[in-house]
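Handoff note, outgoing to incoming analyst
You'll be picking up this chain. Sequence as last confirmed:
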Amino acid sequence: MSVHDGPSTGITVTLPLSVLPLTWAVEQRHLLARVRDVYPREVVETSPRAYEWRRDRHV
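Most recent structure output, in case you need it:
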């Protein structure tokens, strides 16, 4: 993937992307579930399937 910022800086940044294993998404969901179990107050669902970490979360 390449991003070119011509008008402002003229810089182009290229990042190589690789194909992820088929199990990657399942593993990430499992890891998120573990984090939410351990830190239920800090992990906040801000919109459907979008999460943020909020350290200052009070009950």
